[in-house]
User: Fold these one by one.
Assistant:
Number 1:
Amino acid sequence: MGIEQSTIYSSVHFCISFTPSLFIRNKVKIVTAGAIPPLVDLLKFQNGSLRELAAAAILTLSAAAPNKPAIAASGAAPLLVEILHSGSVQGRVDAVTALHYLSTCRETSNPILDATAVPPLLKLLKECKKYSKFAEKATALLEILSNSEEGQTAITNSDGGILTLVETVEDGSLVSTEHAVGALLSLCQSCRDKYRQLILKEGAIPGLLRLTVEGTYEAQERARTLLDLLRDTPQEKRLSSSVLEKIVYDIATRVDGADKAAETAKRLLQDMVQRSMELSMTRIQQRAASSTPSKITST
């Protein structure tokens, strides 16, 4: 390591080694003093340790809301995406977290991410636990990217991209399921004819049905809307999820009375979800049994 690199390394290490309380008070002052350009320059180095140390520093500084516009405008985001491709585990975690912080910046008119971030984010989401905090941040970024045509194409073209989102709907936390179903909904709303069958092929229905009962309010609404889009019936004849719930609630009222209707309706919907999941699994097993041996992935 040269003298200049060594000096930068020492300065950044000092920068992120304050005690937490002292660093919180000084985050804005550090950025105001001009720390961001040298850190961005450091992200361009070939030395992986230096790049990841800079990413850790940017992560810490970007946690302060007043710093986000300056960091977002600095060109740091594309360099953080590069770490997603080739960094260490900790480096990739820091890069995703920093990008997640920056994505919440309202003062920037241009998006901080482009479609090049989709493949590494999907790969990381595929490999991590779907209910982890890391998955929550990764799916939040993917939902943002799913709002652009380039992002939608990148999700579709990535190996197992839609399947990874479907698996997150099934196994994720309340936060990650909300973001994952949001990304799938963005795809289907952008072009139902193009994405409907791709989503259905990955077995999305059981997880979406369960989400209408167990998800956050926003996730439930998104799941209902997506289920309506996935149905293979004309729009004018389509039975919406909200209508189905009203029918179930009316039945529950007649059976157990108004006082217990909500509880009974929820139980009936859960039974319907379970039955749908069983039927879906049966169909999957039947398709697998009829496939040629070369098409069946060994376990």
Note: Residues 291-299 have pLDDT under 50 and may be disordered.
Number 2:
Amino acid sequence: MLPSFIWFCLLAAAVAVPAQEKRIHHQADLSDRAHDDAHGFQYDHEAFLGKEEAKTFDQLSPEESKARLAKIVDRIDTDKDGYISHAELHYWIRHRQRRYIEENVNKHWHDYDKNQDDRIGWEEYKNTTYGYYLGEEFDDVEDKATYKSMLTRDERRFKAADRDGDGVATREEFTAFLHPEEFDHMRDVVVQETMEDIDKDGDGKINLNEYIGDMFSPEDGESEPDWVQTERKHFSEFRDTNKDGYLDGSEVAHWILPGEVDHADNEAKHLIHETDTDKDEKITKKEVLANWNMFVGSQATNYGEDLTRRHDEL
């Protein structure tokens, strides 16, 4: 969920998303591969390393893969007690899966950090994003109200992300600003912005027509597709939990931010269960390296099917 102005500029080039899914912030799975250890460990490799890094390991010799894995184990063991706990492994897997978010933040960081102090102030963001339009309060802009609304909304989101309230964002705070759906303390902002987008009559709640109108606008004489009829049923049977004919903030939160399975947590438990030979619920570097091919790939372990796949990709 990008800030208002960036989102506004990208609408024309947006990737197509099914209308009924565009509001829901699903937690992505760790890999597109089937999780079936009996037929290989590609799911585990991509979960543990991230998809791109897993491809890199597939090109290495077994010796190099194990050597690099040993260094990774040292990085995961943050308290340096010689063991990898569930919490440490969970954090590592979550971190690897968030790399795409970090790459997005890095892409924007230098555009906004004009004084290169490794922080982004609200004024820096505002002037870089809206500077051309700020003269005389958007007087030169055709749709003045829209731009004023976007500026107000971005400022509200920036203040929510700026947890210490000093008017400047650290990299973590700027990440929360660009990707609020990833942070628990930004949930209210995500819900509020969604409510504002859909609640056309401004009564602070969403009725059925507003709910459907956000997904589907029929052309003249066009009949409703089956999926729209399904969404009407979902509104009344599942979304509107108190059956008052409207969605309030709490109901919107349950809709767009569903409580889901923590895939990283499950994978951390799985890897520890499979490699913890002494069953002390934590793993040592020795235990990891004894089961190295579960954590990382190599030319030897991926020679057959995966080598053919790489050839096809090239």
Note: Residues 192 and 284 are 45 Å apart (CA to CA).
